[in-house]
Amino acid sequence: MTNAVVESFVNELLNKQNTLLGEWRTRVRTLESARRLDIPTLNDHIPGLFESIAQALRLSGIDGDAALRANSTAHGMQRQWVGYDIVEVIAEYNVMRSVLHDFVIQTTGSLVPNIVRTINDVIDEAI
């Protein structure tokens, strides 16, 4: 994978994050606890994942960072406060994983292994 492919994907990811977030919200609303949340509460810390993924890709993959862990901890605590259980929190992240995998295919024409691996690493760290 060339740096140009990664940089192009990162730019698309950051430019389309509102669209991706909308797709995620549509899919995640199938979870019972998500149905009753307003958009800002539902979004919570999820937008921070886009920046974490972009940073990881630009640095050729990272194993999570302090900001991501703090973001994920805050998100988990917020979800517990609004009535989610751990299964629903994991399901939310897995919905985002699916949205992003679809976006990789749409953007690059295939599931580029290094991009997918980095997305998975960041989401797994968030979980």
Explained architecture:
- With 127 residues, the protein is mainly alpha-helical.
- 78% of the residues lie in helices and 0% in strands.
- It is elongated and about 45 Å long.
- The chain starts with a helix and ends with a helix.
Give me the number of helical elements: 8
Strand runs, count: 0
Structural class: mainly alpha
SSE series: HHHHHHHH
Per the principal axes of the C-alpha atoms, what is the gross shape?
elongated
Tell me the major beta sheet: none
Strand content: under 5%
Mean pLDDT: 85
Q: How much helicity do the residues have?
A: over 70%
Low-confidence segments, given as residue ranges, are none
How far apart the termini lie comes to 27 Å
Multimerization status: single chain
Gyration radius from CA atoms, angstroms: 14 Å
